[in-house]
Amino acid sequence: MREAVKPFIPPFIRKKLHQIHLLVRKYIYKGSDYYCVCCQTSYSKFLPMKTGSHPRENVVCPGCGSVERHRMLLRYLQQYEDVFFKKGTRILYIAPMHGIRKYLKSLPDVSYLGVDLESSLAEEHFDLEDIPYPPDSFDFCICSHTLAHIKNDTKALEEIYRVLSPKGILLVLERIYPNDKTIENIAESPKE
């Protein structure tokens, strides 16, 4: 139902509805048993992950929607902040997530750009197979759980490499499945 209605609701309204939804959940699950580093709030519990390839319990932050990989990534970036984000660092964050986006935008003396095809959290929208920036535009790039959704991931990586500075850092996080064969997830139908 949600996917059927989505095309008819403008992105800025979807973003507001999502924010209201999270605020309500934040209040409902108020507590002190679980702490989310992304929204810096404590809750009575984390919610189950019901969708995706690995449904599991106690994963989703009720306040910001982060999951384990978001919280782990934020902790990692904070731990190595002085290594990754020196004065003047130009950051490219692909498919931004709220808590990490907020942290990166708060860093002093760095420039930040969040990009995605559609997300309202992104400042710009474009296809990673054709990044509209010249070479040497960024010093640090985060690409988390995105490449599996791109038809030509090799071209996307070539483009990211092209826009990174010669000593730029690319931080890629992707799922690892114990399969003998690569399974692509490029938004095909569930049957495909």
Order of helices and strands: HHEEEEHHEHEEEHE
- Strand-residue fraction? 25-35%
Q: Please give the count of helices.
A: 6
Helix content: 25-40%
Q: Provide mean pLDDT, rounded.
A: 87
Structural class computed from helices and strand pairing: alpha/beta
Tell me the radius of gyration.
18 Å
Q: Which characteristics define this entry?
A:
single chain; five-stranded parallel sheet; two-stranded antiparallel sheet; globular; 192 residues; alpha/beta
Write structural notes for this entry:
With 192 residues, the chain is of the alpha/beta class. It has six helices and nine strands; from the N terminus they run ααββββααβαβββαβ. Strand 5, helix 5 (98-106) and strand 6 form a beta-alpha-beta unit. The radius of gyration is 18 Å and the shape is globular. The mean pLDDT is 87.
Summarize the structure.
Helices cover 30% and strands 25% of the residues. It has 6 helices and 9 strands; from the N terminus they run H-H-E-E-E-E-H-H-E-H-E-E-E-H-E.
